[in-house]
Amino acid sequence: MFSSLRFRLPALFLAGIVLSGLVSAGIALKLFQEYTHDQSLRELKREAAGLTALYVQQTAQSYTYGGVPTDQVGPQLEQATGDRLFYVGVSIPNGPPAGLQVLPKDSVDWPALASGHTIAYEFKPPGESRTFLAVAHPLRFEAQGIVVGALVVAKAKTALRNASLTLMKFLGFALLGGLLVAGALASYLSRRITRPVLGLSKAADAIAERRYDVAVPEVRGGGEVGQLADRFRDMALRLREAEELERNFLMSVSHELRTPLTAIRGHVEALREGVVADPDARAESLDVIANEAGRLERLVGDVLDLAKLDARRFTVHQEEVDMGHLLDQAYASFGEEARRRLIDYRCDVETRPVIVTDGDRVLQIISNLLANAFRWTPDGGRVELSLAADNGSIRVGVEDTGPGIKAQDRERIFRPFWSLDNSGTGLGLTIANELAGALGGRIRLASEPDHGSRFELVLPARLSVSEARRPPRVPSLT
Question: Domain coordinates of the chain in residue numbers?
Fold first, then answer.
């Protein structure tokens, strides 16, 4: 539970809120303490000035008119203000500091007071353990008279701390309320985030069991989790397609293997049992066996080539290759099929360069492209092979008049085990495309439905000798 994302997300969220709340509360408390300290000093200064004047007035009235006794003036002022009052200075008979606790002169800055300045300070009254914040105001009995003492107005600092504690209490309640709201929000967000993640986890378990039709949860609002769900859905679709292609490949390979093996076995049994006694028939049976064995060899070679390309264990040889001669070889390999099917088979060579590449692999690519063109071109159609060079590259084109390729299928036809009619192994174009990339080139495709296709092998023109340009040669086989 504690290691789950659903727990850790709200826990980290709340931990961040608590930390930020404590830091904010500490800063607020410090600022509040400084504010209350300054505010208390200002209030004490105002009170000291007012109480000093009032003290002088009431003391004078007690002498003149027999008012409040002088020993009661101080306690009454303390009771009215709630602050402590002290006296520091010269003792006067029947006068100040009657009714006030006297402080020694060395407890304050007496020279500053004697010169008429009001001073603020902190002190502990004799016999007490509490610290007081105090303001001492000079005391005169005449407007311009000499300073005989000072009235000290003091407030215990515990009162300031009590205000800070009250603030801390309010901040604590506010933080607790914020945590409750944040906890509810974090729980909601964690459920919203972890629900699709758990759904993806279940989908991954299903895919691990080769159940690729699993429903991947939809994530509203997009974001990283939504992007992950979309990529996961694409992955499941591709795995489903890959499994289907693999199944089609196994069926195709089984058929491709079974057909020549059946023919070979039949002719071998006929030869072994002496059913075929005529020399010409025996020679024909041996030709069939040789052709079917060659067909099996090509199929196995295609599968091995694809495995090597996928494993990146493919070696490219570097040699001088006469591209004109190579094209003649590829062209001649399909001449008999063109005659038999009445296909207009042409070869257009604009230049005959000699380049540095792997000649066998280039021939294999061209042969695969021609085999694909002849497969899809109907009898009586047209197939054209061309060679050209421009802009530092060699271009070998194979054009046919087949059914063409739809836009959505142009990328799929280069996938292994995939074919438009679900027949054959679907490896020819895949191997040609991979070999082109291994040679530093690429295969381009231009096609429209019902208008044929043109595959073009583009190779870098690493020339070894000067190009010998010749007039175009357009042989035609009908």
Answer: 5-162, 223-310, 319-477
According to CATH, the superfamily of the domain at 319-477 is: Histidine kinase-like ATPase, C-terminal domain (3.30.565.10)
Encoding tokens for residue 280? 């010409």
Is residue 474 over pLDDT 60?
Answer: no
* 3-class secondary structure, 321: strand
Burial class from Cβ neighbours inside 10 Å (0-12, 13-18, 19+) for residue 394 reads: buried
**Scanning the structure block, which residue is given the tokens 């985030």?**
193
Cβ contacts of 450 within 8 Å, gap of 6 or more: 403, 404
At residue 190, what are phi and psi to the nearest 5 degrees? -65, -40
Residue 161: strand, helix, or coil = helix
Asked whether residue 97 carries a pLDDT value surpassing 60, the answer given is: no
Please answer whether residues 194 and 9 qualify as being in contact, where contact means their C-beta atoms are separated by less than 8 angstroms. Answer: yes
- Is residue 373 within 8 A of residue 330, CB to CB? The reply is no
Q: State in words which class domain 223-310 has.
A: mainly alpha
Q: Which of 123, 103, 97, 105 is closest to 44 using CA atoms? A: 123
| Tens-place pLDDT, residues 101-118 | 888 888 888 888 888 889
Q: Does domain 5-162 have CATH number 3.50.50.60?
A: no
Which amino acid would we find at residue 285? S
Spatial separation of the C-alpha atoms in residues 432 and 445, rounded to whole Å: 13
C-alpha R_g of the chain: 52
pTM confidence score? 0.46
User: Beta-carbon neighbour count of residue 30 at 10 Å?
Assistant: 11
Provide the b/e sequence for 138-148 (b: ≥16 CB within 10 Å).
bbeeeeeeebb
User: Residue 447: beta bridge partners?
Assistant: 453
Distance between first and last Cα of the chain: 78
Nearest to 121 by CA among 148, 93, 88: 88
